[in-house]
Amino acid sequence: LKASLKDQGIIGPQKSKKQKRQNAQDAKASTDKRLQRHEALASIREQFNPFQFKTSARGPKFEVTTNKPQNDKLAKGIQGRPGLAKATAEQRRKETLLVEMQRRNKVGGIVDRRFGEDDPNMTLEDKMMERFAREQMKSHKKNTVFDLEGSDDDAEQVTLTHAGKTLFDDDDMEVGRDDFDENISDMESDDERSARKKFLKRLRAEEEAAEGEGEDGQPERKKTKKEVME
Length: 230
Prior knowledge:
Belongs to the NOP14 family. It comes from Sordaria macrospora. Helices cover 50% and strands 4% of the residues. It is mainly alpha-helical. Mean pLDDT is 72; it is low at 173-177.
């Protein structure tokens, strides 16, 4: 190895200060020398690293004569360079397969749904004014849906429906009309009628007791058990 490095001029006696100064001033010569040094080291590395090449276990089976010139690799029986082929394949996979794996299950892109972004004729002020107006309308609709103090002109009138039909007629929805004014005796059930009668009877008894108390000036005395049994 030392002999090979010395033959290529990589190692040897140290240069004097004058030679180093001349080499530093000549930039082109130093660049060429650096390239030659790199090529020499690469050739020496190939010579002393047998695992970098794939060679045949034995020489050629038959000796042939041909007029084609053979290079050094064919003369030495070199069939390939597995190290270089592996590095090239890894680099190719990083550039193609790795990018696909990183982008898997990812959907890129942003959809701009802002008003006026796709219209080149609108200025920035027009876009901002239109967006502000739409936001105000949206907030006004949300606030007036359940506004009890608002008038019917501000929002659409909400009607109750069942099975696609309105529960009330137009006459029933008149302003100032009360549901208690209607005759609901036909709609009442037997239980409702009996409860209503009991309520009226109790109310009438309370009124009579109040009238009796007003005539005597004193509340009516509660009867004793003896008086009740007699």
